[in-house]
Amino acid sequence: MARIAGLTVFDPYGDAVGRVRDVVSRPRDGGPPHVVGLIAELPMRRRVFLPIGRVLSIDADAVALGTGIVNLRRFERRMGEILVLEDLLDRQVTIVETGAGATVVDLAMESDRSGEWTLTRVAVREHTGRLTRRGHLHQLDWDEVSGLVGRPMAQGTAALLAVLEDMRPADLANVLQDMPDARRNEVAAALDDERLADVLGELPEHDQVGILTALDRDRAADVLEEMDPDDAADLLAELPKPDREELLGLMEPDEASPVRQLLAYQPGTAGSVMTSEPIVLTPDSTVAEALARVREPQLHPAVAAQVFVARAPMSTPTGRYLGVVHFQQLLREPPASMLGGIVDKGIDPLLPSTPLSEVTQRMATYNLVGIAVVDDLDRLVGAVTVDDVLDHLLPRDWRDRDAEARSGG
């Protein structure tokens, strides 16, 4: 069943409906749980319930539905239901025959002649007590293992993380919002710093704060260092000032400096929403050099859509700002051409104090993906990108699934 996660769900017409994220089962007296359906994630991160009776087939590559009708109501777990992948993978259990402790590594479900699906088999790895030796892998019937249902037992996160590892940060953030706070914090803490930083940027502010404050202070500072400075500043702005200053003090000075600068700007201005790390090159840089920078995989698409040209130094605040070269212009020019000869000087940059309403109007007027922000000395201090604007135009709780449910979404 661990291999079900991520499979594409197709309707009878061959159109993709979504991807499987979990399997829902219900306990019963005197036997293993019934499988009642799948949880599928649709576009726009909505998770819905697919009754198992509507599933025509499940194979190694896809899940096929027997009907094109899908209830779009957001899935909500009912009392007593077991989410197989979230609740049972990596669970600490006991082998009944030997009394040995073991860890659940997978489960199997089977259907009978009536088409009813049941959790039948459990794959567990026996604990050895020796760090250098892996325990034996056993395939057992459901009733040969104790601790699978009833009072929750300690459940690790390794297998669950393996299921979630290929998700985009926004999708993983969506899954975390469905978990109880303690489980959410446990899974988040098990992510590496860079992955957790990406996921935090996709969560509503209250979840960001909850996860960050559950980490120890040194780890929290490390995660903040991996975040984009503007995202880190937005998160720190939600904390009490003493906590904010403590975390900034634990960050590396060169990582904390741009975050402090962003926190100093007034909310609702270009300075408060901009990124302080756009692509900046000098006018004697070549088109080939600019394209190499644009291709760097860690860059967000909106940041990589243009190269800002300024006098040295190239880190913000730079020397005098000269203009911008858009990605499409780079593709039209010979690789050896210098940026100073093709720079666009026709769009006036913003000041950090420019109100967000004016920023939005300027970007819409000129169909811009990004626009420069300069200080009083005409030095580039950052850039506002379209994703920054969208984040601040949408309702404050637009990432909050609970808020969407309350509004009937």
Describe this structure in words.
- This protein has 409 residues and is α+β, with helices and mostly antiparallel strands.
- The protein folds into three domains: 75 residues, PRC-barrel domain (SH3 type barrels, Roll), CATH 2.30.30; 98 residues, Alpha Horseshoe (MgtE N-terminal fold), CATH 1.25.60.10; 114 residues, CBS-domain, CATH 3.10.580.10.
- It is 32% helix and 24% strand.
- It is built from 16 helices and 17 strands.
- The strands form three sheets. Strands 1, 2, 3, 4, 5, 6, 7, 8, 9, 10, 11 and 12 form a twelve-stranded mixed sheet that branches. Strands 13-14-15 form a three-stranded mixed sheet.
- A hairpin with a 5-residue loop joins strand 9 and strand 10.
- Helix 7 crosses helix 9 and helix 8 crosses helix 10.
- The longest helix is centred in the middle third of the chain and has 11 residues.
- The chain is elongated and about 75 Å long.
- The C terminus is likely disordered.
